[in-house]
Each structure stands twice: as C-alpha cells, then as structure tokens.
Structure prediction request, 564 residues.
Amino acid sequence: MRSPILAGILGFACWGSLAAARAQPAGEACAACHTDQVKQLPASAHAQVGCATCHTGHEAYPHPAGALKPRCATCHSAQAGEHAASVHGQLLRQGNQAAPTCGVCHGDPHTLKDTRSATFHQGIPDTCGMCHTEIADQFKASVHGQAVARGIPEAPVCTTCHGEHQILSPKAAASSVNPRHIHETCGQCHGNVKLSARFGLPTDRIVSFDESFHGLAARAGSQTVANCASCHGVHTILPSSDPRSMVSVRNLPKTCGRCHPGAGTRFAIGPVHQLAGRSESPAVYWVRVGYIILIPLLVGLMLVHNLGDWLRKLFERRFQPAAARRWPGPWMPRQEIRMYRFERIQHALLVLSFLTLVWTGFALKYPDQWWARPLVAWEQYFPVRGVVHRVAAAVLIAIAGVHALSLLTCRRLREHWKLLWPRRDDLPEALLNFAYNLGLLKRRPGLSSHSYIGKVEYWAVVWGTAIMGATGVLLWANNLTLHYLPKTALDFATTVHFYEAVLATLSILVWHFYGVIFDPDVYPLETAFLTGISVKEEHTAAEAEPAEPEGAQAPGEPERHPAR
Prediction:
C-alpha cells in the first residue's frame, strides 16, 4: 500500500514543481536543473539570448530523446559560412577533429566574452597560441605583442592581420596575408593618419612604399617583390631602434642582402622609406627641383616657338600673295639627301626602341593606368614590362654604339654628321627666328639648310641617350650598384631617369612631331626618314623658280633653290 501512495505523492509533487517552473521565466525554469549555466549567462555575450533560442526542442520535461544540440550557425550564419571556407573549416571537412571550431576559440557559450571587449582583444594571442604556440611566443615578443600586453585596444592581434573567421593560407590569393594584400593589411594601421599621429608613428610609410620600385611592382601583381613583411618580419616585428630588428642599422645589410647580395657592405644602406620633398637626400631633392623647373621652362619655350611658327605660316598662306611668301635663305642643291640609307635604318630602330621604352617605362611607374593594362595583365606570371623595357634599352644603347662607330669608320657619314655640329651662327639664327615667331620682326629671317631646329633635336637625343643609358644601367644592375655605392646613388639614378624620360617624351611630342608632322611646310608627314629626301625641298622645287640673285650660281653647278 505504501508504494503506490508514495509514488502518487511524489508524482503530484513533481507535477506541481514542473507547473510552477513553466509559470516562471525560461531562464529561471532551466535553473531548476542547470544552475551553473544560468548563473554564468548574465556575464556573457549571450546575456540577452533566451535558453530556448539555442536549445530548441527542450521545452518539454523530461527532454525528448534525440533533441538537436545548439548550432552557432542558427544565429551566426555569415560567420559560420566564413569559417567553413577557412583553412580551419577545410581541415574539419578532411576529418581533422583537432581543427578549431567555434567553441575552441570562443569558449563555452554560457561564458563567452563580448568580442568587442578589451579582455577578449587582449586574450586573442593566447587563444591562437593554444595551437600556434611558437608563433604566439614570437608575436608576444614583438612590438605589436608588447602593445597588446599593455592593454592598448588599437594594437593589432592575430585576427587583425589574418582575419577572424575566414582565415586562409598565405598562399591563397584571397588571403589578407598573401603578398598581394600585405600592403592593404599593414595599411590598416600604418596608413591611418589619425592612428599614426596618436601613437607617434611615421605617417609616410605606406605612401613612400607605393612610390618605390617594390611598391609599384607589388601593385602590378608581382608575387616575388619585397613587401612589408619581407623587410620588417612577420610575427617578430620590432622597432628599428631595437638591435634585434630586421631593419636596424646593423641588420639592414643582411635583410636587404637576401635579395641584393652584397648590399650595404661598403656603404650604409641609409633611409629606405623616402618620400619626395619630405625624406629624401639633398642630392635627390635638388635634382628633382632642377628638373621641375627645367621641364616646364624648356617645353614652354618649344610650345611658344612652334605655335608662333604655325600661326605665322598660316597667315602667310591665307592672307599673303605667293610672291611675298618666299623665304630668304641660302641656296642649296635640289633633292639633297637628308638621311642616307644607313642613317634611316638607325632612325627606324631608334624610333621603335624609344616608343617601346616610353610605353613600358611609364607602365612601370603608373601600373594602374588603362594604357598600362596590356602589359600589367601578365605581371603575376612574367615581368613583361621590365623585360621588354630592358630589351628596348639594350637596342637603344646598341644603336648609340653603332652610330658612334660608324662616324669613326666611315668618312662619308662623318662628313654628313659634321653638318649637325653647332656653329656660331646658330644662336643668332635661333633668336631671330624666335623673335619673328613672336611677332617682334616683320620679315622672316634666313634659315640655314641644317638649322638650329635639327641640331637641337640631334644633340638632345645624344644627351638624353647618354643620361638615360647611364642611369638605366645603374638601375638595371641594382645589385652591383648597392654593393659598390650607397643607396642614395640608386635613388639619384631613379629620379634622374624618370624626369629625363618625361623631358624626352614631351620634347618629342612638342618639338620633333611638330617639325615632321604639324609644320605646314611638311604636313601631313615629313618623309625624309623613308626616302632620304625632304618633302619640304620637293615642294619648293615644284613651285615657280624665283629670280636667282646675280652670281649666286657658278657655271656648271647644279640648279639650286631656296631652302625653307
């Protein structure tokens, strides 16, 4: 009798307890059995989340068998998807049960900390260190790890660089620590002006890297060029003042020597991050300032000279009678050979190499421009820009050598070349013609057969080839340059090479193209580079011959006509 009665009493008591529990809030109802978890919950990030939100199917008591366990993906689907695509998720799919899951990194759902809290941020190195012990120890000794230990909330931790849930292998193209993205990853902090100013960090590191050879190559997609981690380290990053740092003065030869053998063995490497006008050597600064003044001045004079010439000729052809358009000047044989065949071949190779150098050279400097894309598209597979640029440079230097050799060995070419040698009359002739183009003279001065116009072009090519060749060789043989000369020499060569290229390109466009295309006397094209004979002379020969000055032609001489 006692057993049935006792069982009834206990059943009634349990029914009453369960009914009372159902009448209470969910957390309090669960606390009847899960006391510890319910007490921990208010201090966790899930404080505002009800038990039934995660523990679905547990409303009934006793809990039904086979009820689904809580899944983080129910609420955190985006994070779960990122984790599944990460290197950790891939290891789990491969059957590696030791790979981290949500609980491994975040802890028990009832006690996990808010990821925005300082405590969570400071504990990330220890969390990752559960698996990556050696790397975590290296990080803690670094300048970043020391900042984290001091409680600085802005200090980078593992997830700052590697990502939070979608952590990928550094070899993966989308990884934030892939060589293609190191620049952006480090730039999160070192490219932040406010953050840099707050902690006294240099504000020009990202900008100066972008303007360097390494930065330009990295922007174009090069996978092998040095990036931030190549020089500063990966996890053991230390300030340059620390003698253990890879970028300390003592260790720079070793660091740079990994790519440039012998660098810094004779001279100190010197400052690496240099920004124009702010942190460059005096030699580089003054040569840059000199070119900034010289280029607008020279190109401006060319524009004024040619524009005045064009307007004068336009006026003469439109508003003056034919008889008044005769140009005073010396007499010269009709159909004079302006360029021999050998010279025309040299000119053709010069044109091809120069245009190739301009395209590839500026593509190296401005890889983001649309006209550089056909070359940059191959950069991650093969350095097309650099290889083609160097081949064109070798062709240009070879042409210069052949030209000099031909002048030494061929009398005919040497005699022809002497026509381009500067004379005392060139300066007055240039000044008078410039004054006429400006409208300061009413009558056009005489212009010699091989005038200052052609001589300026020729000697500018000689000067430019010498400068570009010398600085280009220093840049091409950068390992030898850094071995025997200070890095300032390389910076100086880089600056001169760039600005001389700008000057040469603008000179060709403004001065040479006008003389061979836009000059009304030759428009639409001066074909001397194809036929050897100037169309300007042929045009003059087709006109009615002017009355020849008495005594201007000796007996037996070929017929002559005025030069233009």
User: Anything to note?
Assistant: The chain is about 55% helix and 0% strand. Residues 282-319 form the longest helix (38 residues).
